[in-house]
Amino acid sequence: MKPLLRVLLIVDALTLLGFGVLFVLTPWTLVYDALQLVQTQPALVGQAFGVVLLGFAWLALRAAFHGEMTVPVGRTVGHVNWIAGVLMLVWLIGVRSPQLTGFGQLVAGAVGVWLIILGLGGARLAGLVRKRERTTPAEAAAQRREAREARKAALARREEPVTYAKPEAPRTAWGGAQEAKRPAAPVEPVVEVPTVTPAAVPPVTPPPASPAQAQEAREAARDEAAATPRPPLRG
Prior knowledge:
The chain is mainly alpha-helical. The protein has a domain of 134 residues. It contains seven helices and no strands. Helix 1 runs antiparallel to helix 3, helix 1 packs antiparallel against helix 5 and helix 4 packs antiparallel against helix 5.
């Protein structure tokens, strides 16, 4: 956008230079008669206007090579050009003044249309460039930082090794993972322990009781029998 605006400013500078030279030559009657144009009266006003146009041409040419001046000068020159073109068409078509010949009217009308197109294009282009340059230096630095981080992340993803996922164990009908087959563990030898049966153990017989112990046992049994209550008799 901005290089195109610079080219447009150079075209503006050449256009203003041509008109400036033409108005500076206002006292030269032969030039105006050859171009079938009306001279500005008095000639001093025409020459002063020509000097102003030459100053605008120098300003537009300077702005084409200086970035700080490109947008503001481009907008100003653009608006001045299209307004001047509209005024020329209004006076030529609406007011029909000054009285020009057929060739003079054709040249003046073409110049008016050219100024309108050149001015509107320059003003519009300068507005677009201004919108693009509205970002602050901090925002521009943040955008550049984000771009650098994105490039680094893409480069890191490109350089990292490719890892493949391990195959999963096949699933059974009940949703569980089938266990991998493992080698059978070695079988340890079984040592048989001999069991002892009751028949192999000889019975233990208590020693015979003495007559005094037998008598005491009978008396104790009799006392216990006497102490137990008897059921009531039913007639």
